[in-house]
Amino acid sequence: MGMGHSDPENLEALCFRVHSTLTSPFTLSPPPDAGLGHSAELAFAVEPSDDVAVPGQPIMLGCKVEGTPPVRITWRKNGVELADSTHSTVLANGSLMIRHFLLDGGGSPSDEGDYECVAQNRFGLVVSRKARIQAATMSDFHVHPQATVGEEGGVARFQCQIHGLPKPLITWEKNRVPIDTDNERYTLLPKGVLQITGLRAEDSGVFHCVASNIASVRVSRGARLTVTGVGLCPLHPSPPPRHPPFSGTAVLECVATGNPRPIVSWSRLDGRPIGVEGIQVLGTGNLIISDVTVQHSGVYVCAANRPGTRVRRTAQGRLVVQAPAEFVQHPQSISRPVGTTAMFTCQAQGEPPPHVTWLKNGQVLGPGGHVRLKNNNSTLTISGIGPEDEAIYQCVAENSAGSSQASARLTVLWAEGLPGPPLNVQAVSVSSTEVRVSWTEPLVNTREIIGYVLHIRKAADPPELEYQEAVSKSTFQHLVSDLEPSTAYSFYIKAYTPRGASSASAPTLASTLGEAPAPPPLSVRVLGSSTLQLLWEPWPRLAQHEGGFKLFYRPASKASFTGPILLPGAVSSYNLSQLDPTAVYEVKLLAYNQHGDGNATVRFVSLRGAPPTCPCFYTPALSPPCDCRKEEATNQTSTTGIVIGIHIGVTCIIFCVLFLLFGQRGRVLLCKDVENQLSPPQGPRSQRDPGILALNGAGRAERAQLGRDRKLVDVKELEQLFPRAGAMQPHPRPTQDPEAPALCEETQLSMLPLQGFSLLEEMPSEALPPQDVGPGLPSEGLAAQPAPSGP
User: Fold this and answer.
1) How far is it, in rounded angstroms, from Cα 527 to Cα 636?
2) Which of 373, 379, 386, 477 is nearest to 434 (CA)?
3) How far apart are the C-alpha atoms of 733 and 731, rounded to whole Å?
4) What is the pLDDT of residue 28?
5) Reported pTM
6) Which UniProt keywords apply (predicted)?
């Protein structure tokens, strides 16, 4: 790519010019043996290569195959098999001869295209790399050299550009005579550039660019060079080296002129060293890189410095080296017993990165069924292999610079006397978590059967996620349990003998039955004297099954509920407002889907005596005694118990220490502070939050026993909210230090009848599983910590 130069800023830099061009992109040729197959049974020793043909002339495409005879060789053009004809013939050694290469026209199809050599024997079929055959061409010049005026001792530069196949050879003529390449002042660059350093009067004349290849020879328009007298900035260059060969070579051009002669240097923009091996400087500063590799790609910087000054000019350009696909790991031939899994791996590199495809006996192999492709197609996995999977598999890596292939054979081992596949496999749903699979024994070779193996997976899962369950040989049905409700499963079965497994039976599908959802975990937070916040875990799957949540609530003294309030399955909270601040409320939440309503989760909470903000609320069945401590200025309610504190002021800290003696249950302690807001700090994740009431619903067996219409209520929770008469006697208040900074009042709840409730014993805290209780809240149990001993 060409790069411009900066204009001089003063007379001293008037004759200082920098010009840089790079050969980009630069395409490497593949090594002669690149991509040769590695299957001993059938492989390519020689593959066809890209070529350019002269119209009307013959061309031969080479192909040599090694393998177990007999081997049949055919050719494809653009994916279609070529038939033998007088125009093209497959020779005895496997090469293809085209006697007269044709282009479009005259009613005959063009011979240009992609050619593949195809070899086949009893083990399978392999296809060679694609060889692109193009006709030799030569375009007109699209850049002609331009007339130039130079000063004695200066530098002149001519350039021409032309396209052709194969790449044209560029030479130059002066006054219709080829220039003397032995003249060290004349530098010819392969991209059509002529540089003349140390100009002299005899260099004046008319220069022509001559381009030639096997298709044609073309001559550009003439460009006159005029050499004038010595200018302000004469140049005294050192003799340049002789032009090196350019096979596999990249040229980075940089021309700098000035007086005194500028010092030209090269570097990489990324700071990596250019190196010295294969690196030369040609002419006044052209960088020549021999044996170019992908590692030479990058941005190069040409810098010209005027000696003794700080005057400096730079130009930069990018060198892009393209490399055809090349294998760093070939697939290996393998042998596997029938019914097992076969895996092939191949890894290729190139620039740009190659795309990998797989062939099975010459046909493109895509994912599906028991075939999986992973890791950008570099890994081929075939599960549950059978005799039909025995073939030659090829890994084909291709990019814009070329393609390569490598092959490997899969041999499926089949022992004599193995039983056939089990027959009449059927699957019937029994419940929401169980499916019964039945089958009949194979038709042949059943005497040595030692058992069956049932293969199970979700229908939507890939084959590698399946699991197996063993079944005795005398059993022809099996109950598969612990499945997910409303889910489709795939089943197949194999018979096993001491010598191996049978082929797999035909797969069968069955879906588990649906069921109503389980009780949702529900937590309650008191936000004020008339507002409750309900929190639970969202269930997005409910929306997939036409479901959601139903919410009911009522004062515990009333017989009828308000509701249902229908909520989507993705919702995880709801606020109840405008409640009676003197009442105890019963809240009931259940989930439903197309199979019906699930069991409800029931909670009781008292608003009696709760102030407008941050009450300290205590239920003995769920938490230790109330602790009132510092609270964040944001009035965030603590998440470590059912303790809600109200605290006003900013100058002193008020502590409330409450002691409950044995037998005093069902009391609600309202702690009133007169200064800073206090709340207990968060406890461990394994504890329960004093600000939230969270009880788990009953398990499946308990729900079946109690029935859907019965309420699940914790005994101790009810005892706290509705204490027995024996527990209603007042107890003397603990003596309080007159200097204590807090004052706590005790308020008792009046007892309500326990009519219409079913009692369920409280589960031990270890048995309550952790639950997510909503955004911003701990995802596990809730508990309070003791109050700190000091501020």
Assistant:
1) 10
2) 477
3) 6
4) 58
5) 0.52
6) Disulfide bond, Glycoprotein, Immunoglobulin domain, Membrane, Repeat, Signal, Transmembrane, Transmembrane helix
Which pLDDT score is estimated for 353? 92
Q: Using CA atoms, how far apart are residues 477 and 508, in angstroms rounded to an integer?
A: 14
- State residue 721 phi and psi, 5-degree precision: -80, -30
Cα gap 59→87, rounded to integer Å: 11
The CA distance from 713 to 699, in Å, is 14
Copy the structure tokens of residue 417.
């006397």
CA 9, 14, 18 angle in degrees (round to 5)?
90
CB 510 within 8 A of CB 569: no
Q: What integer pLDDT is reported at residue 422 of this predicted model?
A: 94
Angle at 765 between CA 760 and CA 771, to 5 degrees: 95
Give the SS3 label for residue 774. coil
Q: Do residues 488 and 459 lie in contact, with contact meaning Cβ atoms separated by under 8 Å?
A: yes
**Best CA proximity match to 526, nearest among 362, 638, 403:** 638
Cα–Cα–Cα angle for 500, 506, 510, nearest 5°? 120
Mean pLDDT of each 10-residue bin along the chain, 791 residues long: 36 37 50 49 91 92 93 93 89 93 78 94 92 93 93 88 92 92 83 87 94 93 87 37 48 79 87 82 82 86 87 86 90 87 92 92 88 92 88 93 90 83 94 93 89 92 86 92 90 88 89 86 88 87 77 91 89 91 91 86 82 43 37 38 38 46 39 36 37 34 39 45 44 41 33 33 37 36 36 34
In whole angstroms, give the CA distance from residue 493 to residue 384. Answer: 11
| pLDDT of the residue at 726 | 39
pLDDT tens-place string over residues 266-323:
999 998 888 777 788 877 788 888 888 888 889 999 998 888 888 888 888 888 888 8
Task: Classify residue 188 as exposed, middle or buried by CB count within 10 Å of its CB (0-12, 13-18, 19+).
Answer: middle
Q: Which neighbouring-strand residues pair with 138?
A: 164
The rounded distance, in Å, linking the Cα atoms of 49 and 116 is 10
Copy the structure tokens of residue 401.
Answer: 């610079």
C-beta of residue 483 within 8 angstroms of C-beta of residue 434: yes
Beta strands in 175-306, from DSSP E residues, in sequence order: 177-178, 186-189, 193-197, 205-212, 217-219, 223-228, 249-257, 263-268, 279-282, 286-290, 298-305
Quick check: helix, strand or coil at residue 783?
A: coil
Give the per-residue pLDDT at 448. 87
Question: What is the structure's pLDDT at 762?
Answer: 34
Question: What are the E-state strand segments in 59-110?
Answer: 59-61, 64-67, 72-77, 80-81, 88-90, 96-98
Burial of 529: CB neighbours in 10 Å, binned 0-12, 13-18, 19+: middle
Per this entry, what is the length of the chain?
791
Beta-sheet pairing, 137-138 with 488-497: unpaired
Per the listing, tokens 């190196």 go with 275
Phi, psi of 116 (to 5 degrees): -135, 140
Counting beta carbons within 10 angstroms of the beta carbon of residue 530, is it exposed (0 to 12), middle (13 to 18) or buried (19 or more)? middle
Instruction: Count CB-CB contacts under 10 A for residue 738.
Output: 5
Taking the C-alpha atoms of residue 772 and residue 781, their distance in angstroms, rounded to an integer, is 9
Given this model, what pLDDT does residue 25 score?
55
Alpha carbon of 28 to those of 189, 258, 556: distances in Å? 19, 37, 85
Let me know if 764 is exposed, middle or buried by CB neighbors in 10 A (0-12, 13-18, 19+).
Answer: exposed
Q: How far is CA 216 from the centre of its chain?
A: 51
Three-class HEC string of 391-446: EEEEEEEEECCEEEEEEEEEEEECCCCCCCCCEEEEEEECCCCCEEEEEECCCCCC
Q: Which helix (H) or strand (E) holds 319?
A: strand 312-319
CA separation for the pair 133, 44 (Å, rounded): 20
The pLDDT assigned to 737 comes to 42
pLDDT for residue 162: 93
Assess contact for 222 and 206: CB atoms under 8 A: yes
